[in-house]
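Students often ask why inverse folding is considered easier than folding. One informal answer: many sequences map to the same fold, so there is more than one right answer. In these notes we will look at a single instance of the problem. The structure comes first.
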């Protein structure tokens, strides 16, 4: 049975796309079949971050009824499959997500998990996405604005009775005002793990792959694997062999 997971945040730029890619890579590491669907119709980044340049068969065309979603599945070298959006601005005024749920279920049974890289904002598009999935993972940063917007997304999920599986606290630093425990208390939601501010994450985007594939022993890669292992009830030991400079700055929960 396919499980549909929305990666949401409220605020823009918190790391939804980066975490979608790396979490999908971590699930793939645990031998799960994953399809990543780009649903950020206003600022789609998934395709450029995975090297799919201007796909003709894309999610906009699927939403507009020109193709079936099966025709828009692209393979990535990392074994993940992607349904990309085109980056063309010509689609913006033609798009909405009112039929997202209906077209999405065209891939039912084709993967163990479908991750949906969501839009930012707590608006009607996010509501359509919430209503299309089984559960939600929130990506937020340890600052007041991100947490406030994430809280609103959690409230929307509660209102539509969709379970929030947990929070990934992304871009953490040693000087954060909010600890993982603070975030759990404030949001009344489990923090699945923390991923530090790490220049290798934009670097992996630049090289069109996940940090897990490019830097498998990096602490963030291990962090994503640990989060995936907990979500999948798989055994994984977070162990850094070579304690480098950055390792002192990173905490996992
Ligand atoms: N842990 C991290 N450390 C450093 N940079 C990061 C981290 N996570 C994401 N980034 C960078 O932050 C920027 C925004 O990330 P990303 O595009 O994943 O966010 P988003 O929530 O999908 O944004 P949008 O709301 O525009 O869709 C990117 O340049 C990305 O490489
Ligand atoms: Mg994004």
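Output (designed amino acids):
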């Amino acid at each position: 049975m396919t499980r549909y997971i929305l990666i949401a945040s409220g605020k823009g730029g918190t790391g939804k796309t980066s975490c979608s890619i790396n979490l999908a890579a971590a699930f793939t590491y645990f031998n799960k079949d994953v399809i990543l669907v780009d649903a950020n119709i206003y600022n789609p980044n998934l395709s450029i971050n995975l090297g799919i340049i201007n796909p003709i068969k894309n999610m906009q065309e699927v939403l507009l009824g020109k193709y079936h979603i099966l025709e828009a599945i692209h393979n990535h070298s990392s074994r993940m499959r992607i349904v990309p959006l085109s980056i063309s601005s010509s689609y913006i005024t033609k798009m909405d997500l009112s039929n997202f749920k209906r077209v999405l279920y065209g891939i039912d049974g084709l993967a163990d998990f479908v991750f949906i890289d969501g839009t930012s904002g707590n608006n009607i598009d996010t509501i359509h996405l919430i209503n299309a999935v089984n559960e939600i993972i929130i990506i937020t940063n340890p600052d007041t604005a991100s947490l406030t917007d994430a809280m609103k997304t959690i409230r929307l999920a509660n209102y539509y009775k969709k379970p929030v599986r947990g929070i990934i606290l992304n871009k953490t630093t040693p000087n954060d005002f909010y600890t993982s425990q603070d975030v759990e208390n404030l949001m009344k939601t489990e923090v699945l793990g923390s991923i530090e501010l790490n220049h290798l994450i934009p670097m992996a985007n630049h090289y069109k792959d996940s940090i897990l594939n490019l830097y498998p022993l990096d602490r963030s890669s291990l962090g994503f694997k640990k989060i995936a292992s907990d979500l999948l009830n798989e055994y994984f030991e977070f162990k850094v062999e070579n304690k480098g400079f950055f390792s002192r700055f990173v905490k996992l929960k």
